[in-house]
Each structure stands twice: as structure tokens, then as C-alpha cells.
Amino acid sequence: MAVPKKKKSSSSRNMRRSHDSITAKLSNECPNCGEPKLPHHVCSSCGYYKGREVSEAA
Ligand SMILES: [Zn+2]
After folding, report:
1. What's the confidence (pLDDT) of residue 38?
2. How far is the CA of 20 from the centre of ligand 1 (A)?
3. Would you say residue 2 lies in a domain?
4. Which of 17, 38, 43, 55 has the largest count of CB atoms under 10 Å?
């Protein structure tokens, strides 16, 4: 296994990890029921996608 030449400082390590806690936000809302949903995903509350029902409502 490769051995690192320089030890990362705790500051650099923490700066790298500063984005680890960021999670994807629900930026779209369903045009059918208005619930927040992931873009390009079937709505999890009504099962609609592109104006028609594609799956059973959860
Ligand atoms: Zn919906």
C-alpha cells in the first residue's frame, strides 16, 4: 500500500470533511400533489411522474 509523504494537518482534514454532512435537498415539488420530490424521480407520495400515475402510492 502507498504511504503518504506528508501528513495532512488537522485543518486540511477538517476542511475536506466540511462538506461531508451536506445532503441532497428536495428541490422539486410534485405538480400533482405539491409534495417535495427528487428531480427525475417518481413522486413518493402519489406515485406520479410526467403527469401520469406510474406506481402505487406509498
Ligand atoms: Zn405527488
Report:
1. 85
2. 30
3. no
4. 43
